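Q: Can someone sanity-check these two? First one:
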Amino acid sequence: MKFSAMPYSRPDLEAMKANLTACTEAFLAAAESAQEQIAQYDRVTDLSVEFNTMGSLANARHTIDTRDEFYDAESTFFDESWPQLSVYFQRLNEAMLDSKFRPELEAHYGSLLFLKLEISRRSFKPELVELMQEENRLTSRYQKLYANMTVEFDGKTMPMPMLGKYKVSADRAVRRAAYEAEGKVFDANRAELDEIYDKLVHNRNAQGRMLGYPNFIQLGYDRLGRNCYGQKELAAFRDQIANDLVPIIAEVKEAQRKRIGVDRLYIYDDKFRFPDGNPAPEGTAEEILAAGRRMYEELSPETKEFIDFLYDNELLDVLSREGKAPGGYCTMFEKYKAPFIFSNFNGTAGDVDVLTHEAGHAFAFYRAMNSDIYPDLREPTIEACECHSMSMEFLTQDYHKYFFGAQTAKYELAHCEDSLDFIPYGCMVDEFQHLMYENEDLTPDERHGVWEKLEKKSRPWLSMDGLPFYGRYAHWQWKPHIYLNPLYYIDYCMAGTVAFQVWTLSLQDRKAAWEKYLAFVDQAGTKTFADLCQSVGLRIPYEDGCIREVGSGIRDWIRENSSAEA
């Protein structure tokens, strides 16, 4: 079914509550066999699929146009409803965990589902509902504020994402001016950005304390479903990045500085890779989309089936428009077994990155929804999901020529360098968030001071040149994940190290790498992240020595392929 034809109607919240209550009561009353309880749990799963599909449709249509009053109201409805329903889902989850038939239930659903339920049990209680609703209102407020920011530049008024091509202009003065214009817009919204984040930190910490934690951090880990590692492992991972990867990237950035011919790297030079300009995809947005379809039709039979379904059913909305929410994401409409890609094309190589990254998510969703895997196990934890997307960025390498033509080698080098120097940035975002929740009463200026220290630790090659917003080190507010998805961002870093492993294998044996990737994807959420990695012979990112090994291999590839600059 085409996206435009997918019917939407607001679910009856009270009926949903009544149905969940009835299922839970029937589950508890089942005395004869595990099959009676399985029937009730499966019924709740079906109810969830319907409710979640409507929620995903409402959110997608709201982010497509945040000015649409109808879907703005529907988005608000789900912001308020999901926390309320958590109470009812939790009752059933607890009944599952405490069932006298638990051995039979575990044999039927698998032990990992019960680990997920245990994490869910310790991360929720009914007293949280009001705080969760407030949290949703605050994140929606941030999203709407960001979406409606416009900037005056080049004689035009444009949505913020459209600055992207100017921020990588071959003219350094234009790059600086674009960053300056962007910074002024954020500075104009300074008070509200500071207020929203302060309220979010205090709100989330209050939720954590209500569950017996000193702050939000462990609750944040639980909400992300992390089930095989904790704060200790991630701190060790960040240390590996600082000790083993930052020096390698410093070498890469120094080569970049010399290549583009500047005395020092400023923030507006960071993403500028070549003196004659960064590689940009050739053609119109429509032609780029057509090239994307051709790429996946040729990559494998599995991706051909997937991409034809996606394109034929209008499951991409990628053009930037006023009122459209920033950023990009992939979601799914479970009822229709349909993934959906949202983005903001801006005429840069990032447009192609969307067609590889977000399509990696969509491909995994498509495979899972069309498998016999139980719905609650179709999606793994987030770092594994990001392995799907970031690996696909590299596995499509043979087809990037369809977008970049003679500039393909330059794109490959730039993409590799971008992927590499993203990792300490992502770790910086993660460490910043930990420090914010551990020190909730910092003033806005103190928060910016923490970011400044982390910048100098993680990206010492960059200077801010006294720009608005950037010069006061407030530019962490540019990253929506910090507001919307707390403690999520490091998942990209861990996934990046997995993607690099898949890529280096593909350079030697493309077929073997694809088969390894497909095996990883097709296990969906039936294993923990660590087990998924080990099951296909990949190193777990936080293992000692992993970063040193991966980083040195990528450094060698960059050295060998830097002739792309010619």
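And here is the second, same format, sequence then tokens:
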Amino acid sequence: MSDGPLIVQSDKTLLLDIDHILSDECRRAIAAFAELEKSPEHIHTYRLTPLGLWNARAAGHDAEQVIDVLLKYSRFAVPHSLLVDIAETMSRYGRLRLEAHPVHGLILVSNDPAVLKEVTRGKKVAPMLGLQLDEETIVVHPGQRGFLKQALLKLGWPAEDFAGYVDGEHHEIALRQDGWQIRKYQELAAEGFWHGGSGVVVLPCGAGKTIVGAAAMAHAKATTLILVTNTVAARQWRDELLRRTDLNEDDIGEYSGSKKEIRPVTIATYQVMTTKKKGVYAHLDLFDAIDWGLIIYDEVHLLPAPIFRFTADIQSRRRLGLTATLVREDGMEGEVFSLIGPKRFDVPWKEIEAQGYIAPADCVEVRVTLTDAERLNYATAEQEDRYKFCATTQTKKAVAIALAKQHANDQVLVIGQYLEQLDELGAALGVPVIKGATPIKEREVLFAQFRSGELKCLVVSKVANFSIDLPEASIAIQVSGTFGSRQEEAQRLGRVLRPKADGRGARFYSLVARDTIDQDFAQNRQRFLAEQGYAYRIIDADEVLNKN
């Protein structure tokens, strides 16, 4: 027993003393398998979940390593029952295996006949299974590979998939490293994915996830389908692939609302893939249009539910998910785990920052007080209208304008959720507003002007949350958001984390209305970043306003 920073409890919660000298070291060690639940000032609460432990197991951590971490950092004796539970939970991963049989095709195998017997009795599992060959082997109906993995995960027996992958149509792809070099962690991420066969790579925003995708394509050397969040992201992917690989323009097609090109490397948007015509998903045949060797899912934490259903049908294709955070607000992390694959590579944000690959960031929460009239209106507003009311208070507008003026020499992004609020801010600051209705060409021109420094300030809606590369943006001012979304907060901080040419740090302001639901949401939004080691300092709006 040592004077460590961690208190491990039998209810699977871990309490981390933030003021302890070893807290950062401990945080990095437990991040591989524990999920942050609460992060007030002094004690952060983490929880051990089966999915977190299975992800750790898939990423190469065994139960012994997890237990060693807990014993090393724990302040008191670790409950024995918990250690046993961790070992047993982690041993469940891989007890069932999907394999390819030369005669019978897809089979489910287990060295533990009792487990096989248990899962075959599951109402949802039984229809997916065929002939039992022996007490350790049972045939799986073709086409049920993904659905079976989903069902087994829900039963608490996640299957490891060794059934292999089709190579897909060959297409020569190689990295072209002239004037740049792939970073060590990018190389390890691509190799971790390739050897695992399918799965998710988690890297901070600005750490070069596109290059990991390109390196995976160079491993596969096959036709590739890349799914992205929007058309701007599709074009950024295209430009990056042309710059980093030996692909030429004719090799890359765009499949979006405006273009329908199918090429050896096709970049499609989630929107077009989930578009329905007369109740039918009209573009799903894209999945079968070419014999794909690799499918890449950009921002996999945003994967729409219909895409999961399509992904269940294409388990024989290699699948790579890229994201900054595996956090989903809809609780569908299990679907990502079973259908895209488990976490194959993860690196803490602060570690990448220490290596100089992302900019250091100062996170500031600016507390805004509602006027008496606003407080009264807030108190009498309907429950569903309350967040919008306090998130768009006029006081926030004054603070956002004051902050933008204080940073007039920096590249500033003002980000928000509500369009009327953004239009007002754009008009007050005299700068363009980018939102969903802004045509793609206009967006690209404005982003290019911002990158070159011609534009110093941009007001953006949530269309800029994802996959937008603005390397010189150093100040972000968040005025409103999608309720308590942790992944949105991470994405928005990510807009300013790209390393700056002059080595400057970044600053992220989050404007929060005091004593309202906005404050509760802000706490939840900050949880993921707290886990990554970003502490928010809180200042009062008057400090900002009095500076001007």
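A (reply): Looked at the second one. The chain has four domains: 6-92, 96-161, 184-347, 356-545. The CA atoms of residues 175 and 245 lie 4 Å apart.
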